[in-house]
Amino acid sequence: MIEVSNLSKEFVLNRQQRKELNTTEKTALAVDNISFKCEPGRVFSLLGPNGAGKTTTLRMLSTIFKPTSGTIKIAGIDAVSNSQEARKKIGFLTGSTGLYARLTPNELIQYFADLYGVSKKDLEERKERLYTLLDMKEFQNKRIGKLSTGMKQKVSICRTMIHDPEVVVFDEPTSGLDVITAENIIKLILDCKQQGKTVIFSSHIMSEVDLLCDDLAIIHKGKLLFSGTMSTFKENMKAENLTAEFIRLVHESQNA
Amino acid sequence: MIFTIFKKELKDTLRDRRTLMMMLVIPMLIFPVIMNVFVSVSASFQEEAATKKIKIGIVGAPNNFLQTELNAIPASFGNKEVILYKDTLSMLADLKLDSLQLGAYVKLGFNTYLDSMKPAPLTFYFNATDMGMQERAEGYMEIIQEKAIQQRYLKLGVNQDKVNPIETTYTNIASDKEMVGKLAGGILPYIFIAFGFIGCMYPAIDLFTGEKERGTIETLLTTPVARWQILFGKMGVVVLSGLVAASCALLGLFLSIEVLDVVDNKEILNIIHSILSPTFIILLYSLLIPLTVFFAGVMIPIAVYAKSFKEAQSIITPLNIVMVMPAMVGFFPGVELNLVTACIPVVNIVLATKELIAGTLDFSLVALSFSVMFVLATLAVFVSYKRFDKETNVVM
Fold first, then answer.
1. Chain B interface test: which of A14, A27, A111, A170 (most B C-beta within 10 Å)
2. DSSP 8-state code for residue B336
3. What DSSP letter does each residue of A23-70 carry, written as one string?
4. Rounded distance, CA A97 to CA A222, Å?
């Protein structure tokens, strides 16, 4: 379960950033007082155009960023005041995640299992299950730098799931991947849902959202435009399809 | 957790060819290669100088004193051939063409000047671009002059002792170890500082900026490990790399001395052996460890701040000069470790190491130097922590 209430994040802008953003403001509000809830066994999708605040929100959920205000609860743990405990419950995967190219998948998985304090027995069991599921056994001892994008993606998935997290955060997990490689991620999300895990993911791809999500939130310029179930969203759609409705909502908020 | 991170980062670092080159290969090979080249080049120059036959032209009367005495100087002072010229112009023309290396104009009646106890005028010509010719002429003239003086003493019937009223003896009370320590002792800390800095540089950039650039830091920050633990684990590898690079450079220097026989003076070799005691090595490292931590602590905030490997490198490389320059103070004779110099970072370590080698150590000053470096290292680590804890610095 993820419970977010009145979450805001403000960044202090340095001179160079002010120049880049063409503003004289000393701060930028990336996330503005948003609240939502992600239930276990359901897939929650965070939608928004570039710069909407999706990544900042997900980084706050995974405790990389500290919120300026508001609260986050991850599986009942306050992620702001007790971030280290909350991290034990989170699996985090982004499309831009890199892997240590000079390590082998085995070494990488062992490293992250050690960091999460996974016992030897659990590690062996989970490794066996995930390696079989993802067909990773063949390249488990090859240097990651020499693996294909698809293989690397499988290693990333295995790394995310090795501590069996209750909550899984995906930040544009399929960006830059071909359809075949992206399929591994889709399978993983569905698998997590089946196992009763709480899943939140951000994406631009509407077909993915339609296929996977049970609940969604639309965010634009840090503000929440919609939060509810997918079925409610579809019922209240004024445009022909999901993409058109998404664009309509964004434009409407810009004109408001 | 710190050790888990340290172990992984070390493994990662040891698999990076660029870091390995800077940490192990270059420091280990640089001195054997430089010394080998230096020794063989200087040996070949010495050999050439010893065997080179120079031609000395003389314009003057046949069998003048200079010609006779030059011919009498044994070949052990350098091979030579004396040629008599009729005029200065042709002698100078040959000197310009390098078919002659030295020219001497001996005024007519040179021997008469000598016989009548007057100063005999003599002019030497040489080409300053032909290295060592002036020294060669001065060397010959020292012998000839001495002979002329002896002849005059004899002629005047004067006892040489009577014209030398004071016989001075200069006795050096410094031990050989002290001499080596004070005069050449600056080299050791200089090498350590220079290579320690370079050794820290690549891992610092790779483990901080590199991790940011490759997009692996984000995942690491979502693990239940405190940021200070991540920082300490990584910093441990940076410090170790600096120490290993510096140690490899010193080992390379030691091997050059031992294996390549660059020091053929047995007394100096014995002094070097007596300096390198286990106590010396322990004391040396206890001074150098806080210095390396300080280097790491200075580099890490830059590496954390930089957005790319290139940016980090462009900031840290000039810093190398700023850090290593004070180490050169060690080469200046007369600069001693005192209450002021003990408070100047880097300089204090160089001077303390010099004193350590010379065996003239004042422990209170060494303790002060150590404390200054320890405080600075702690401060640098704190700054690193603050930088690493700043979320906008860590994540791009």
1. A111
2. -
3. ---SEEEEEEEEEEEE-TTSEEEEE--TTSSHHHHHHHHTTSS--SEE
4. 23
Amino acid at B285: Y
Closest by CA to B393, choosing from B337, B312, B294, is B312
The domains of chain A are located at 40-63+82-255
Q: Tell me the sheet residues that pair with B183.
A: none
Q: Which domains does chain B have, with CATH numbers?
A: 2-33+176-394 (no CATH), 51-162 (3.40.190.10)
pLDDT digits (tens, 9 = 90+) for B291-319: 899 999 889 989 988 888 899 989 988 88
The backbone torsions φ and ψ at residue B307, rounded to the nearest 5 degrees and listed phi first, read: -95, -20
Query: What are A29's strand-pairing partners?
Result: A10
- 3-state SS class at A72: strand
Backbone φ and ψ of B321, nearest 5°: -65, -45
Q: What phi and psi, each to the nearest 5 degrees, are found at residue B105?
A: -105, 115
CB pair distance less than 8 Å for B216 and A84? no
Tracing tokens 């602590």 back to the chain, one arrives at: B297
> By C-alpha distance, which of B204, B191, B270, B277 is closest to B240?
B204
DSSP state of B210: I
Q: Which of B202, B207, B278 is nearest to B244 (CA)?
A: B202
Contact list, A115 vs chain B (CB under 8 Å): 1, 4-5, 220, 223-225
pTM here is 0.79
For the segment B318-331, the average pLDDT, to the nearest whole number, is 81
> How far apart are alpha carbons B121 and B66 in whole angstroms?
11
Q: How far apart are CA A124 and CA A244, in angstroms?
A: 47
Cβ(A47)–Cβ(A53) below 8 Å: no
Task: Tell me the residues of chain A between 103 and 162 that have a Cβ less than 8 Å away from chain B.
Answer: 103, 107, 111-112, 114-117, 159
Contact B111, B122 (CB under 8 A): no
What tokens appear for B115 in the block?
């016989």
Gap between the Cα atoms of A123 and A131, Å rounded: 11
How much helix, strand and coil, in percent to the nearest 5, is found in chain A?
A: 45, 25, 30
B174 phi, psi to nearest 5 deg: -75, 140
What phi and psi, each to the nearest 5 degrees, are found at residue B353? -65, -40
* Nearest alpha carbon to residue A34 among A12, A62, A3, A77: A3
Tell me if residue B261 falls in helix, strand or coil.
coil
A84 lies within 8 A of chain B by CB: yes
CATH of A40-63+82-255, one of 3.40.50.300, 3.60.40.10, 3.90.226.10, 2.60.40.2100: 3.40.50.300
The conformation of residue B52, written as its DSSP 8-state character, comes to P
Say whether B126 sits in a helix, a strand or coil.
strand
Phi (first) and psi of residue B118, to 5 degrees: -110, 160
Q: Do B216 and A97 touch (CB under 8 A)?
A: yes
Which residues of chain B lie closer than 8 angstroms to A97, CB-CB? 215-216, 218-219
Alpha carbon distance B125, B103 (integer Å): 5
Q: pLDDT tens, B27-73?
A: 888 777 877 787 778 777 777 766 778 899 999 888 888 989 999 98
